[in-house]
Amino acid sequence: MALSVWLSSLAALRLSRSGSLNWRHTDRAETTTLQEGLARADPEALARALGAEAATRIGRFLEGIEGYRSHPYRRRLADPPVLWQAGTTRVLAFGGDPAGAPVLLVPSLINRAYILNLTAQRSFARYLRERGLRPYLLDWGAPGADEREFELDDYILGRLAPALEAVRRDAGRPAVLAGYCMGGTMVLPLATRRDVAALVLLATPWDFWADGRHQARLIAAHLPGLTALIDGLGQLPPDALQAMFAALDPLLAARKFSAFAELAPASAAARNFVALEDWLNDAVPLTGPVARACLEDWYGANAPARGNWRVGGEPVRPERVTCPALNVVPARDRIVPPASAEALSEALPDVETWRPPLGHIGMMASPRAKRLLWRKLADWISAHATA
Hints:
Elements: H1 2-18, H2 28-40, H3 43-69, E1 82-86, E2 89-93, E3 102-106, H4 124-130, E4 134-139, H5 152-171, E5 176-180, H6 182-191, E6 198-202, H7 214-233, E7 235-236, H8 238-248, H9 252-260, H10 268-280, E8 286-287, H11 288-300, E9 310-311, E10 314-315, E11 325-328, H12 338-347, E12 351-354, H13 362-365, H14 369-385
Parallel strand pairs: 3-4, 3-5, 5-6, 6-11, 11-12
Antiparallel strand pairs: 1-2, 2-4, 7-8, 9-10
């Protein structure tokens, strides 16, 4: 993608000289400025400069990729004790003040759970423990033999529900249920039917057509190929999921690896980049039934927002949640459009909505997350878990 954009600039330069370049989707004032600048420039000198700039960007991008591949950082952070396990699903208990409010953190099925415990210095779970709470992390794990044919109901009722009960028994009181991304969507059915102290939703998609169906159309365009993969493999592999996420921002990889090339390899910023990138590249497959439900029912039919998503035969209705709820909608989210998550603020009866200036992953892993979100969030959980 990066090569096609940068190298096509040379072709676009030739089209601009012939008057055949399509300017329809650019700002009119910017177009006029560009056209006037092109008319004044020496054609040969401009072509040489453009080619040199493309080569520079390609070289920096490759340097960043090679620097990442050869970086010595490896994640060696030991997991906390396992409280409960079924199949490949575990609940990790981080300990903390016995009097602190228990919080069950529920990540997405798509990526590994350790985004919430990325490094010793960049760990949302450990931060909650430092603030006097008792965090537990649900680690779904990759689908194994037991989970091969799992549907969403199997994960929610067969794994998440008993995990929540195990936390309640261990802590001796109802837990705060905190879902991140797809994990937030999956906790909602339990929040409507279980004894939950409070509900925290972090970048949780709900109305899958709220962005004008942009993502739904993108997935629909890829659906025949994705369906063929699911039929042939019995699951949706991580590479297919990564390709869809990459399509949301085609030049993101070029920008971030080019910036990484400028960092000192031994710096904390470089280590943090590698830690996060390793997590991104450590995705897990979705079982065939779950992949179909997400692609066809959620994105294709918008079943959750239209009241047609059922778990255990019962429709999932956010308006039935009786505990206090917090809906955190990161304003710079490119993975879950803010409007998709905002729909839950309209549906939940007792809800606060925060819009921190963070991205989807940045809210859990950026250097600013603690200052802009975590501190305030820990206070909210402490106050509402004992309300």
